[in-house]
Amino acid sequence: MDADFLARPAEEVAPTLLGSVLTCRTPEGTVSAVLTETEAYSGTADPASHAYRGRTPRNAVMFGPAGHLYVYRSHGLHWCANVVTGTEGAASAVLVRAGRVVEGEELARERRGERVDGPRLARGPGNFCRALGITGEHNGADVLSGPSVVLSEGEPVPAALIRVGPRVGVSRAHDWQHRFSLAGDPTVSAYRLSPRARPSAGS
């Protein structure tokens, strides 16, 4: 995978990231997961994007070159990881919503709890980051060259196996069809409409 592959609009990149592998190396060990669910956020054109109102110190990574990780804290509780896409200066990113752990399952289980079964280890964006050990320290990390977080190609996913639907948990532009997942995969998170959701127009 290279920068040109990611230098496209988020809604084009998001479905093509399914099947890719994200690896995080920490002092505790290495955990890798195949991406099974993603969501696209289109920057200043997207009311649900952190970049909708322009550049800030928090979202600055989204405006940088494709291939970096934008990590933020959700509701002050969970870290969430996004792969920056598009061209430099035009914010665009793909949220990693879920994955299937394929390396380092024991470490992922230590982080998530012994009672959490395999399919739930990295289900949901917060759980994904916790399982892999991704934190705010990884904000801005280059996922194409590493070394701490690396995104690599996996097995291609046939278009027939990709499901498209509305985004989860956002109050604005929630009905945009920018959520992509592997059909029937048990690691994919459940759809939940935000109680603050309101009707919106979009693509």
Report on the architecture of this protein:
- The protein has 203 residues and is an alpha+beta fold.
- 13% of the residues lie in helices and 27% in strands.
- Strands 1, 2, 3, 4, 5, 6, 7 and 8 form an eight-stranded antiparallel β-sheet that branches.
- A hairpin with a 3-residue loop joins strand 3 (69-74) and strand 4 (78-84).
- Helix 3 (105-112) packs across helix 4 (125-132).
- The two termini are 27 Å apart.
Helix/strand layout:
Elements: H1 3-6, H2 10-16, E1 21-26, E2 29-41, E3 69-74, E4 78-84, E5 93-103, H3 105-112, H4 125-132, E6 149-152, E7 162-165, E8 179-182
Antiparallel strand pairs: 1-2, 1-6, 2-5, 2-8, 3-4, 4-5, 7-8
Helix pairs in contact: 3-4
Please tag this protein with its features:
single chain, 203 residues, alpha+beta, 3-methyladenine DNA Glycosylase, Chain A, 4 helices, 13% helix
Number of helical runs?
4
Range of helix content: 10-25%
**Outline type:** globular
Under CATH, the topology is which? 3-methyladenine DNA Glycosylase, Chain A
Q: How far apart, in Å, are the first and last alpha carbons?
A: 27 Å
Largest sheet: 8 strands, antiparallel
Low-confidence stretches: none
The strand count comes to: 8
Query: Which secondary-structure class do the elements indicate?
Result: alpha+beta
**CATH architecture annotation name:** Roll
The name of the CATH superfamily reads Methylpurine-DNA glycosylase (MPG)
For the record, what CATH class applies?
Alpha Beta
Which radius of gyration do the C-alpha atoms yield?
16 Å
Number of domains: 1
